[in-house]
Amino acid sequence: MEINKFCIVVPVYEKKENFLNFFENAKKLIKTNEKFEIVIVNDGNNYSFDDLADWSDNKFHLVNNKKNLGYGASIKKGVLETNAEILAIIDADNSYDIEQLIGLMKNFESDKCDLIVGKRIFKYKDSILKIVFRKLINKLSSIIFNFKVEDINSGLRVFYREDFLKDIKIFPDQFSLSSTQTLCTISRNKEIKYINTDYSKREGKSKISVLIDPFKFFYLIFKIFLIFSPMKFFGYIGIFFISLSLMILLFSFLFLENILDLSFLILFISGINFIFFGLIGEIIRINNKN
User: Fold this and answer.
1) Each residue of 60-69: pLDDT tens digit?
2) Domain for residue 217, yes or no?
3) Which pairs count as long-range contacts for 212-221, CB under 8 Å and 24+ apart, including other chains?
């Protein structure tokens, strides 16, 4: 059986009407493009997918989750379903232009990058809280990873299957595979290219919570930083404690009757311990890499 070169993985947890609108458009485009296939991952929806397409056609594949496993888990199952070299993911909520995605996939190799991310250009007025939240997360990621992150969580992206599989154990089943992929790509010193992408108002209710998700993003950012840069993560903390101990020692020597030697000692030893934690983490990371 011929192996297609390009594959679009689509995790689906949508109302039936929303998905049908997306899928009808996708079918027309995929059938007219050679070496393309599409993997639909039914993530526990309450309607049948069996009659939506001819799943015996090598251009269409259906994966059914018995229950709702989550966005990340569905994408991972879809990636394992295909042997295509160049992959893409897109949401099924009709917010992105799949025709643009197909064009990006065709030109992916000539772009000489490892990950293309659709930088969302919002075609509607979003809430102030969400705008501030996105800017904050992008800025924090840029500072910590020393790389300009323009849209950490865009759901339209193109990448090599081989690169995805390297980090598949790191990618979460729930929240948030797309952000994790962005940070992993940066951490591996791979090339990311951002392409302006029109983003329409999604059909249905957004799953983003401006009250809970910021804390999830903060956890995710520091988690990936710790995995790929343990020496920096613990080293920065260690240097902070050592610096604080020296300042306390100097302050107590100059302005107090008694030197705060115990406080100095506790903070100084804590700082040294954090640096050793970083060294141990770095050794583990290098050994796992090899």
Assistant:
1) 899 999 999 9
2) no
3) 213/133, 213/175, 214/133, 214/136, 214/137, 216/175, 216/176, 217/137, 217/152, 217/176, 217/179, 218/140, 220/172, 220/175, 220/176, 220/179, 220/180, 220/183, 221/137, 221/140, 221/141, 221/144, 221/183
